[in-house]
Amino acid sequence: MIKALSKLDVITLFVEDLPASRAFYTEVFGLEVIYEDDASAVVKMSNLIINLLRVSNAPTLIEPVPVAAPGGSRALLTIEVDDAEAVCAELAAHGVKLLNGPVDRPWGRRTAAFADPAGNTWEIAQVLS
Hints:
globular; alpha/beta; about 130 residues; 3 helices; four-stranded mixed sheet
């Protein structure tokens, strides 16, 4: 194991509509924008930074691999919550449509999934006792 690879610091999400994605993360997640320019908006969670980057600026970061086309999920980002039902109600109040859930999973979590405006898939997960 490479010990230097033990802390996730930044997730960069490629987005087509930067204003809509920025609004989603500030209004639904309640995150603060800590940096922005014409190409990106960077928001901060308590332990993680999310860089919302315009798709047109993404190739230089990942070349020679192409940026995936919209429409398919390539990752699931999970946030642990205390009460999945309450968080689902808050998401609905913000106009967020659930992809699935909440549902009790065999691995001991109650989960629900939703997507941001760019199609990045998020999941909330409540640990069941």
